[in-house]
Amino acid sequence: MGERSHHMIKRSGSGAKDVRKLNRARVVVLGHPGCGKTALCVRFLTRRYIGEYEPNKESTYTTDTVVDGETIHLEILDTARKHQNEKVSLDASIKWGDGFIIMYSVTDRESFSAVKRIKRLIDAAKETLGIPVIIVANKRDLDRSRTVRCAEGQELAGELSCPFFEISVADGYDSVASVFHRLIREVKCEFLKHLEAMEKRSKILNMRNVLFRRRRSKTQ
Ligand SMILES: Nc1nc2c(ncn2[C@@H]2O[C@H](COP(=O)(O)OP(=O)(O)OP(=O)(O)O)[C@@H](O)[C@H]2O)c(=O)[nH]1
């Protein structure tokens, strides 16, 4: 996985099995303008739904949340409209993140079409497989104005191998929390895979060093 320097790993006392714990994670919320990114972040942070937000505003929020009994410190980047067309700054935001929410509105086909493009940007910027990405369809309360069927969202998510949620930020907090918690679980899972790969690599290097030293002592 990408840069992991900001993560802290807690280890238990001597003799006990090491406990690897992800203490912090960075989440980036991406999506076409007006799909509800700020509403999603504010709902998660405050449990409240506020109808209108300043558009085009990029914000970073921090919060502590408990997932599966473990507290995790989250930094959440709510990307702004300008970013959707500015590849360089979007790249920087993507490199910063550990996990991603790509959002669209079920009332806006254009926002649905943007999902694939955004996913490609994430894959290109991270240059590695297994980046945790969740696709979120929002505004399901506006069923009469719906232009994207739930099945289309599910199909797209399947194609991109991402978990999928269809929610209404306006309607409640629980589904919003489920999105963030699922993403944190995915980030944790990738983090552990990354640790295991590093440990395996260091074991192989150690073995090579031991063999090398043995061979040298024999020839001396
Ligand atoms: N009916 C309904 N409206 C919503 C929902 N979520 C957000 N909205 C409304 O959609 C509009 C845009 O929401 P924002 O959260 O500002 O969207 P954004 O993606 O942050 O927009 P930009 O900052 O312009 O990129 C606001 O008027 C919200 O009140 C929802 O679940 N249902």
Automatic annotation (TrEMBL):
Q: Which reaction does it catalyse?
A: GTP + H2O = GDP + phosphate + H(+)
- SMART domains xref list: RAB, RAS, RHO
**Pfam families from the UniProt entry:** Ras
Q: Membrane-crossing residues?
A: none
Q: Which UniProt keywords apply?
A: Hydrolase, Nucleotide-binding
Q: Which GO terms describe its molecular function?
A: G protein activity; GTP binding
Q: What is its EC number?
A: 3.6.5.2
Question: Which residues, if any, are the signal sequence?
Answer: none
Q: Which PANTHER family match?
A: RAS-LIKE FAMILY MEMBER 11
Q: Which family does it belong to?
A: Belongs to the small GTPase superfamily. Ras family.
Protein name (database record): small monomeric GTPase
